[in-house]
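Entry:
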Amino acid sequence: MRPTLDGEMRSRLFRLSAGAHVALVNINLINGIDSYGGAMWMMGSTTSLVNTTIRNCSATADGGALFFLTRATLWREQHALHAPPLAMKGSVGSSTAS
């Protein structure tokens, strides 16, 4: 059985700032909620998701499960996803800070 981080629909699960390097392997992220990015809010960070499930995470403003503020890199398995520019409503959102 994989470990599970549960936000219990009360909070976001991760807030990753500039310079952060995080790898999540074999884990479930569930029930995260916030204004921007229910599971993760990322700003200038590098994040790897390997065999990780994100389920039932939401945002009241933008981002759904994931939200990128400024440039961030998300690795899913062996594929890099760079943001911004990226906007997939309901799952991933992005914004450029002024």
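The chain has a mean pLDDT of 79.
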